[in-house]
Design goal:
Length: about 160
Amino acid sequence: MQHIVIDAVDVPPTNSPADVVRPISEALGTSGVAINYFELAPGESFGFAYHRHHDQEEVFFVLTGTATFRTEMGERQVDAGEVIRFEPGEFQRGTNHSSDRVTALALGAPRDSEDIEYLLDCTECSEETIHTSEVADDRAAVIIRCTACETETRQPITE
């Protein structure tokens, strides 16, 4: 058994635009499921882009506030006490469009998802294209690469 206090979990460097991200799975020592606690100020999102995990199922449990998820079927609002699930391969991005703070737990299985794609506007292609990512050698950024034209951009990892 492992027991933690969420507020005691350190906030590590991340490329998430969320105000607070606490990696609960690491603190609990889980091996099969990723668990992250998020706090989103108005206008913030869980991840920096519309994306999909080919190798991971994701579940978001909204604790307070209302999160709005962009999905392949349109926008879906998820209120406090509600849960939304994404199968592996489904595009999604959750954002706080309200004026209130959002807190949520994100669960993903398997824990260590590595097969992630982003649907982003490419500056070279002048359209939305699939992008892949990898952590830069200096670990200060995530390198985002357009699969159509190979253009690279850096998304800083912030402390």
